[in-house]
Design a protein that fits this description.
This protein has helices at about 15-25, 65-75, 110-120, 155-160, 170-185, 185-195, 235-245; strands spanning about 25-30, 45-50, 60-65, 75-85, 95-105, 130-145, 150-155, 205-210, 210-215, 220-225. With about 250 residues, it is α+β, with helices and mostly antiparallel strands. The protein folds into two domains: about 15-160, Electron Transport, Fmn-binding Protein, Chain A (Pnp Oxidase, Chain A), CATH 2.30.110.10; about 165-245, PNP-oxidase-like (Split barrel-like), CATH 3.20.180.10. The protein has a six-stranded antiparallel beta barrel with strand order 1-2-3-6-5-4. A three-stranded antiparallel β-sheet has the order 8-9-10, with helices on both faces. A hairpin with a 4-residue loop joins strand 6 and strand 7 (about 150-155). The chain is globular, with a radius of gyration of 18 Å. The chain starts with 12 loop residues before the first helix and ends with a helix. About 35% of the residues are buried.
Length: about 250
């Protein structure tokens, strides 16, 4: 079971949508069917695993042999549906967000590092010649947070604001912090999971960004938010200390 964040009444629509994007590790990808058949141009939906960069732009790892990748090669306009309704008895009362943008190839080490930390099983095929990382350049998003709570969000309002020279945005800095937490502080990682009401055993930290940290145990993911944005390892450690002291 995935643990999804509850929307805070103080969150803007962009913040609420971004929290859902950061929390989920799978989404539905919609592309326009390529080719010259009668179905050319029709919407084509597929399941994809997702991660996101430090500022919450979606990252995909997809095969050149897949239909959605062939479609993107012709028309790179895409939509991603992030569905956070799965644990609700009335799913239409839950949160979901559709992200519209353009999928562009991203060969940076940062994209690969964040995706593979989120999906360690992908290391087995990420190096295959027919696989490539893509980042979605967000144009707009559509948030539905229950009945009567619907908003269109411009791209800049969806993403976390870019700030120059942020140490934690360096994936090496992030990886160092994560390795430290998993190696030296497993009781605290277990505490984070238990604080979300989850069985605390065997969880590992897989990501840390300005707004929170990501956890994984086999096929399950969870996320816990920070009360205030963090931009350095020391600020993240201080946020962890405050979480512990509040209990």
């Amino acid at each position: 079971m995935d643990d999804q964040p509850e929307e805070s009444p103080d969150q803007s629509p962009g913040e609420a949508a971004r929290a859902l994007i950061r929390a989920l590790d799978a989404a539905t990808l919609a592309t326009a069917l390529a080719g010259d058949s009668d179905e050319s141009g029709w919407p084509y939906a597929s399941l994809v695993l997702v991660a996101c960069d430090f500022y919450a732009s979606p990252i995909l790892l997809i095969s050149q042999l897949a239909e959605h990748t062939k479609n993107i090669a012709v028309d790179n306009r895409v939509s991603l549906l992030y569905d956070g309704t799965g644990q609700r008895s009335d799913r239409l009362s839950g949160e979901r967000v559709s992200v519209l943008g353009r999928a562009v190839r991203d060969d940076t080490l940062g994209a690969a590092a964040r995706y593979l930390a989120r999906h360690p099983s992908a290391e087995g095929y990420a190096g295959f010649a027919d696989f490539a990382f893509f980042r979605v350049e967000v144009t707009r998003a559509h948030l539905v947070a229950g009945f009567g709570r619907i908003d269109w969000i411009d791209g800049p309002d969806l993403l976390f604001p870019e700030i120059p020279a942020v140490p934690l945005a360096d994936t090496a800095e992030e990886a160092e912090l994560i390795a430290e937490m998993n190696k030296n502080h497993p009781p605290f990682v277990r505490f984070l999971a238990e604080n979300l009401g989850l069985d605390g055993d065997s969880w590992r930290m897989t990501g840390c960004d300005p707004e929170g940290c990501d956890l994984r145990r086999e096929g399950n993911v969870a996320r816990i938010g920070f009360p205030n944005p963090v931009f350095t390892q020391d600020e993240a450690r201080e946020a962890f200390r405050q979480m512990r002291e509040r209990e």
